[in-house]
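Troubleshooting entry. Yesterday's outputs looked truncated, so today I'm pasting the complete records for two proteins to confirm everything comes through intact. If either block looks cut off, that's the bug. Protein one:
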Amino acid sequence: MQFKMTPTERKWVWYDVGNSAFTLLVSTLMSIYFNELATNAGISSDNYLAYWGYATSVATAVVAVLGPTLGTLSDLRGVRKIIFSAALLAGAVGCVVLGFLQHWLWFLVLFVIAKSGYSLSLVVYDSMLCDVTTDERMDEVSSRGYAWGYIGSCLPFVLCIGVYILYAMFDLISMQLSMILVFALTAVWWLACSVPLLRSYRQSHCVEHGGHPVRTGLKNLGGVFKEIGKNRQVLFFLLAFFFFIDGVYTIIDMATAYGTSLGLNTVSLVIALLVTQIVAFPAAILLGMLSRKVKPQYLIIVCIVAYFFITVYAIFLRKEYQFWILAVAVGLFQGTIQAMSRSYYAKIIPKQKSGEYFGIYDIFGKGAAFMGTLLVSGVTQIFNNQSIGVGALSVMFLIGLGFFIAAVREGNRAQNLLAERENAAEKLTAKKVAEE
């Protein structure tokens, strides 16, 4: 049976189409531009990769601190759209200004601000999933978001590649002018795709505040941490998510930087990652449809195992064709592991506290990339070898797999206990009826 999205679901998906353009820019041309600025300043390729990783780590640390607080505040009636809009503007405006900067250090500072705004907008956006659809439709709607995000971001990215080629291959414009145009185009696309959601979104699940909203929000946040400590399924899932999504986001953030540090052709790297987006579109759609027949947790396990082998393969990457193989492999599983994780989590948390819970989700998710990029950067500098640094990520997927299996077992145990209680209640009711 064909899956048809509602108008509200489609407008929610459009934001994935818009923000994915920024994600693609960060993982490709933005890191290439920073490499240019760093090279002009006399910074070595190893240190360039390390500095880029450190900046990404700082951005994710900022989100790890602010995400839960802002997520909690967004649960209060009438606040979610305000926080979402503020984070969106910080990211988009920062993206535009980045194109005008020529000093590598100032570039990194503003990059941290822009990426933090982008990530904070996603904390609120993910929590909106509980408002725009139902539990039964979440897996496919979440998958459609990532799928259309991947393919939709290709349009502005193709235009960005065209602008970059004018500089890289034909030398018709300067590097800085090409970056000004590329960053501005990405920001405009991002904002334009956000308009349908901003105009139509209505918060249906919320928490009422009885006084000062900030004080109420912080009090609620403390209560959520206690709830998670008692809910072993949510706790084990978040620990698993911390480790396996750590590797996923680190690969997204540092793929082009890694290829550039190995001396591979930048134009080829950018086109290869465009192929990743194209492959990710049908893969996310098909695996989303498969979730009707296969439990999402099994699909997540398959993706974690696949990413383990991808990181092992990356250790031996030396040539451009190997990077292309890596790009296709990542595309097959990237959207599915993100989409299934988001919808799996949304179904096991209280709907009225989705902002708070997704704020914490972001600590264990994008906040985890702090450790991933720090791990890659640190190991690279210690061994003076980029491949060993990237290979270290494989351990994260193994640990994540162990915690996720524990989360699935806890979920099954909770369902069995609930079923036993319901059966006992039914028997008790039947006994009373018989006695009467």
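Protein two, checking that the full record survives here as well:
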Amino acid sequence: MRHGKKINHLGRKAAHRKAMLSNMACSLIEHKRINTTVAKAKALRQYIEPVLTKSKTDSTHSRRIVFKYLQNKYAVTELFREVAPKISDRNGGYTRIIRTGNRLGDNAEMCMIELVDFNELMLQEAKPAKKTTRRSRRGGTAKTDEAPAADTKAEAKEEPKAEVKAEETPVEEKKEEPKAEAPKEEKKEDEAEGTEEEKTEE
């Protein structure tokens, strides 16, 4: 029984397995993504993530420890020059495994393992996402909530002016109303006199 043995031997002896993982780690650092089986990708993730964490501190000691794992001075240079500055703000989880289906020959489960900070498409999609508060259910941001408040203040300032104008206008109408009504009454009297004259003529 193999209870508690978490290492996947991948059907290889220790020397063969270490050499394979070292080569895969160098390829991942150089190309930023590689295609392999899911089992190998999971083993590679456990192998390379401590190496990436070690590369954050650029010292001779760190470079020698990383070289012990990679055994490739070009990969070490690439790691400390290009990869380390990009992953400096990330606290672990440097790689991503994306499953791509099964292989035709032996039906093995295939995947693509990549460095998270070098996938530009996913980084561009993640940037425009805006933070939404849990309180607002309208789908607006905090800025949109502030805008109506400013409008209400402006309306509150404008309302007294409107009331003053409303008070002034009826006064003017009252002054004008008697002038407008006087001619109408005269016309009515003229019409009444005209009707009386017509009756007398008849």
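Both blocks look complete. Sanity check on protein two: Residues 142-201 form the longest helix (60 residues).
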